[in-house]
């Protein structure tokens, strides 16, 4: 039994396809299949049910795969010990970030991070929360930037800051006359929200106490389902109603657009932005460096804000 065989084993479990697993391990499919067959012969058990599509692990295969993940994770810690001794940061850091954070948070810190740590290759994927958690559990990501709490036992959450929700309102709307808005004043027919699957949508509905039921096109000829906050902003500007935005998205907004932004009354609804990792995560020094750089890049008024009325993501 070798570590390479265990890597192939985990790859097939992750992708549930021999060809895709081989491609991601940078070997040919015959090579990967041969090594797994040797492993099965050595152990005397069948690890995968190859008659099913997609391929799935057998019951004994599931237990062996779970142990293989532990073995590989422990073996990789040897490399971390060596890097810690050399006091250098290098290698690859795979980051998953949700769409309502990516365009506003990443530009604040990524340039400085890359300049400070030129030997680190950063790979960023923009994904939904559920996708980030899945990839963390399958070791396809090292760290996630998303909104918590998740209440997931496999994930460790490292809160970074608390970001306020802001209201973006059409200038002809009645609420545009107010400097601050109470959540109870938001009407469902006025509100434009993201597609299902976005945690930001769930939080908006929680703020409005709508329980997941919303129709922002009733009484109009437009039913627009969007995965982009920037698109929702344009709809508010050109059509009617309002939408909610994260505080970071307002920082670099042109002055003519900022005139459409309204704050909530105290206590302001907040979202908890966190750096999340798997419970048995590796690359601790890299993750610590990333955490430090993010906190340093965000306005101190946001970083220093105390945890108050945090809106749940479900």
Automatic annotation (TrEMBL):
Keywords: Activator, DNA-binding, Transcription, Transcription regulation. It holds the Pfam family LysR_substrate. It comes from the Bacteria. The keyword Transcription applies. GO terms for molecular function: DNA binding; DNA-binding transcription factor activity. The keyword Signal does not apply. SUPFAM superfamilies: Periplasmic binding protein-like II, Winged helix' DNA-binding domain. InterPro entries: LysR_HTH_N, LysR_subst-bd, WH-like_DNA-bd_sf, WH_DNA-bd_sf. Residues 1-58 form the HTH lysR-type domain. Gene3D superfamilies: Periplasmic binding protein-like II (3.40.190.10), Winged helix-like DNA-binding domain superfamily/Winged helix DNA-binding domain (1.10.10.10). This is LysR family transcriptional regulator. It comes from Pontibacter fetidus. The lineage of its organism: Bacteria, Pseudomonadati, Bacteroidota, Cytophagia, Cytophagales.
């Amino acid at each position: 039994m070798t570590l390479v065989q265990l890597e192939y084993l985990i790859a097939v479990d992750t992708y549930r396809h021999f060809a895709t697993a081989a491609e991601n391990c940078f070997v040919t499919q015959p090579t990967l299949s041969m090594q797994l067959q040797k492993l099965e012969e050595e152990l005397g058990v069948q690890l995968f049910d190859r008659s099913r599509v997609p391929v799935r692990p057998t019951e004994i295969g599931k237990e062996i795969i779970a142990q293989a993940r532990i073995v590989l994770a422990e073996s990789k810690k040897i490399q971390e010990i060596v890097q810690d001794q050399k006091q250098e940061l290098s290698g690859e850091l795979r980051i998953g970030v949700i769409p309502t954070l990516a365009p506003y948070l990443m530009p604040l810190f990524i340039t400085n991070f890359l300049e400070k740590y030129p030997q680190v290759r950063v790979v960023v994927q923009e994904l939904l929360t559920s996708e980030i958690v899945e990839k963390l559990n399958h070791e396809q990501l090292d760290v996630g930037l998303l909104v918590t709490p998740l209440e997931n036992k496999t994930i460790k959450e490292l809160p970074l800051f608390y970001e306020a929700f802001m209201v973006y309102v059409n200038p002809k709307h009645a609420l545009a006359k107010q400097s601050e808005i109470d959540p109870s004043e938001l009407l469902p027919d006025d509100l434009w929200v993201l597609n299902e699957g976005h945690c930001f949508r769930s939080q908006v509905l929680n703020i409005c106490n709508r329980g997941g039921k919303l129709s922002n096109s009733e009484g109009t000829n437009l039913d627009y389902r969007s995965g982009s906050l920037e698109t929702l902003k344009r709809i508010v500007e050109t059509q009617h109603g309002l939408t909610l935005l994260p505080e970071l998205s307002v920082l670099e907004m042109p002055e003519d657009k900022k005139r459409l932004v309204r704050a909530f009354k105290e206590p302001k609804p907040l979202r908890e932005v966190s750096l999340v990792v798997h419970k048995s995560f590796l690359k601790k020094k890299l993750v610590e460096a990333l955490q430090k750089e993010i906190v340093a890049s965000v306005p101190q008024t946001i970083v220093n804000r105390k945890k108050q009325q945090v809106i749940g993501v479900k």
